[in-house]
Design a protein that fits this description.
five-stranded mixed beta sheet; 4 helices
Amino acid sequence: MLELIPTGSDRVVGLHIQGKIETADFDKVIQKIENQLKFHPKLRIYAEIESLEGMSPQAVWKDLKFTFQHFHDFEREAVVSDKRWLEKWGNFSNKLFSSIEVKHFHFDQKQQALEWVKG
């Protein structure tokens, strides 16, 4: 499940991820992001990831297409999770994608993550 959550900023798209991501979930996020891009040249992502059990093949395809289309439309992402592999992924992403700054936070740092991604 992938759902939108409020962040208190129209420049920051908030996401909560738990379980498997389906196409319908991803469609809602795409619509929100594309609407916000009408008002802001660059967006930021705040993602709380409790668990990630994969994506449907259709959602993977949409994600890839969307990522390539909007590669330079994001400048910062806060990932909130207690998963060690996501912390490592954030460090790797910073090296691989220099146009977006990714920072990992633990669940007890949610407020810090939100402040950082808004700042």
